[in-house]
Amino acid sequence: MTTHEKKKTGGLAGIVAGDSAICLCSADDENLLYRGYSINDLASHTSFEDVAWLLLRGQLPNPTELADYKKRLRSMRDIPATLKSILELIPSTASMMDVLRTACSALGTMEPETTSTPPFAIADRLIACFPSMLFYWFHYHKSGKKLVLDSGEDTVAGQILHLLHVIPPKEEHRRALDVSLILYAEHEFNASTFTVRTIASTLSDFYSAICGGIGALRGPLHGGANEWAMALLEKFSTPAEAEKGIKQMLSDKKLIMGFGHRVYTTSDPRSAIIKKWAQKLSQTAADGFLFPIAEQIEKIMWQEKHLFPNLDFYSALTYHFSHIPTPMFTPLFIMSRITGWSAHLLEQRANNKLIRPLSNYIGPNHKAWGPQA
Amino acid sequence: MTTHEKKKTGGLAGIVAGDSAICLCSADDENLLYRGYSINDLASHTSFEDVAWLLLRGQLPNPTELADYKKRLRSMRDIPATLKSILELIPSTASMMDVLRTACSALGTMEPETTSTPPFAIADRLIACFPSMLFYWFHYHKSGKKLVLDSGEDTVAGQILHLLHVIPPKEEHRRALDVSLILYAEHEFNASTFTVRTIASTLSDFYSAICGGIGALRGPLHGGANEWAMALLEKFSTPAEAEKGIKQMLSDKKLIMGFGHRVYTTSDPRSAIIKKWAQKLSQTAADGFLFPIAEQIEKIMWQEKHLFPNLDFYSALTYHFSHIPTPMFTPLFIMSRITGWSAHLLEQRANNKLIRPLSNYIGPNHKAWGPQA
Q1: CB 3.0-4.6 Å disulfide test: which of A27, A359, B254, B260 passes with B189?
Q2: What is the ipTM metric for this complex?
Q3: Which among B99, B209, B356 is the nearest to A12, CB-wise?
Q4: A289 vs chain B: nearest CA distance in angstroms?
Q5: Would you state the pLDDT for residue A178?
Q6: Interchain proximity B21–A367, CB inside 8 Å
Q7: pTM for the whole thing?
Q8: What pLDDT score was predicted for residue B6?
């Protein structure tokens, strides 16, 4: 293998790892389809529950199916008392991603998948109870409060904001989060989804695959990027300061999170959608500086590096304006992407082949045996 | 992309996913090298602790380094009281793989990796305390006993058997397990190691990557195969019965675990080594039938399908003759493979590129938006 060929396969960039009917992430027209529907239509016309159903079951629900599905998800929000005890034992200092990874794994010991588990059961269960796990842990360690896990809200977005703030959310914030959950739900063979499929390909159980997905999403080169984007935005007080700071970071060759994408080349079709929400919320938040700072950074990154904001950049602002603490940004990504992960897991199982590539050996030649010095 | 090309990339079979200096798994001469040393030399001359050091640090330890390393691992066997409480809460009915996945994840909330964590610290910690986690949970739920986690044994193999049986192991059983831990320690880009590297490639933390590895290993097409091999062996009472049974399974197109390999084509170099140990232990176990049954199955599988036993097949027997319960076989695989996983994780970090392949879209074309029926 030549060096050039080796370089090409680094990180499997450009390598097709399998077939999928779930998502088309198209660099040619910078478009994104879930099961054939464009992300613009979905973000304009549907709810996250529609999209969860679409990704898992392959078509959009009719109104009766949607109403039943919302009821079903609502009925699955409580978690076992033993899991609550475990969440109470997890340190208050823990990363929230580690809390969800551990809680998901622990739930797998209490409600394990068996040969008689219906295909969507664990997916729906996790969609319903990831918010419960996180916010039970959060409030217990913040104030000793043992949270009641059904807020009465009939949407996942409403449940998340209500459990977080312990009051009913403003509709504007709820819908912004709802749209963000739609945008984050699925994105083809990204690193966490590919992890889920690799684990599923050994015929392991549902929880094992999802725990792997959470672990992969945690990294700053993947889901963690939205938290890093927020940290970047908060460094600056004016657009002029941001311009100077970003130019300095670029000249120091620092990695700037929230820009560019492995698949898209000129824009991320999700970014324009969430940017509108960030702008809208910035107005009611009476924020005079963060949104213009973000736009300035966007402008400089395009001027200097021809890099465009990806979904993470304006999502960070949208969450911030909804008073969501930054360490929850990637956990919210889990609460959305569980839908895409689950759809891929089931697709992998339906036509399984063990995912097992080769490595190119660059180590020492065979060493003869001798006693060690 | 033609159908033929698509077929070739299924499961990434034959695709080189990156460089590695850790292991050469050679189909040409059916050999296996760890850092240049042949598996035969390592299994004859070294201990599992030598191999753990070799895989992580790149060379074999000298006698002083080895003695210090054994002391270091021994000093890391205890686990936090909070983790013990969590293990007490995990149901007695849980899969032991789920117990270790959850305990590993929970430890990550208590002893998280930080930017100042030394590179080998978490690897060594997990090598030392995976046996503690499993056997603390096991004895607590079996008899209510809260196990003391340092058995006094100075090897991982001794610690495992001593914690399991709560008496010092026979040297023959200890060394057989020691050899098995050497053989299971590393195997290039297998599904669990590739999972670990994919998670590490997002720059996620050590525990996240290892939890993913455990999840992948759990599947019957990967680590779970040794448990399935034992279940198969126990179906038969005589070699003649085994011959008849296996031929029937083959004619029913049933998958027979413990045979064949994605990389090797005519034999698994590890199988002959562990087979000798299975034979040796069968003699002192005064077992008159399981070993001959295994040999008969090996013969039939070669005759009928040209398939050879892989490491899992005779490992199952070796464990069985050491009075290790079958549901512990894959957990023991974790206690060994943690070394290879950790070496790959560190190698991935040293020259990182996000692992993110593409999918071949086979879903519906763009659907125009319309109200759902």
Answers
A1: A359
A2: 0.95
A3: B356
A4: 31
A5: 98
A6: no
A7: 0.95
A8: 42
The verdict on A14 touching B (C-beta cutoff 8 Å) is yes
A259 pLDDT tier (thresholds 50, 70, 90): very high
CATH topology of domain B225-321: Cytochrome p450-Terp; domain 2 (1.10.230)
For A:222-281, CB contacts with B below 8 A are 222-224, 262-263
**Cβ within 8 Å of residue B31, ≥6 positions away:** A366, B24, B38, B39, B269
**Does the beta-carbon distance from A12 to B355 stay under 8 Å?**
yes
A74 Cβ neighbours under 8 A, 6+ residues apart? A128, A150, A154
Q: What is the pLDDT of residue B7?
A: 45
Name residues 57-76 of chain A within 8 A of B (Cβ): 60-63
pLDDT for A138: 98
> Which CATH number is A23-218+332-350 given?
1.10.580.10
The residue with tokens 């792997």 is: A212
Under 8 Å between Cβ of B89 and A82 = yes
Chain segment B67-79, per-residue pLDDT in tens: 999 999 999 999 9
Whether the CB of A370 is below 8 Å from some CB of chain B: the reply is: no
Residues 17-36 of A with CB under 8 A from B: 17-24, 31, 33, 35-36
Of A110, A204, A364, the CB nearest to B91: A110
Q: Where are the alpha helices (DSSP H) in A22-116?
A: 39-45, 48-57, 63-75, 81-89, 96-110
pLDDT digits (tens, 9 = 90+) for B200-240: 999 999 999 999 999 999 999 888 888 999 999 999 999 99
B85 touches chain A (CB under 8 A): yes
The closest of B362, B365, B367, B366 to B1, measured between CA atoms, is: B362
Start-end of CATH 1.10.230.10 domains in chain B: 225-321
The size of the A-B interface in CB pairs under 8 A is 364
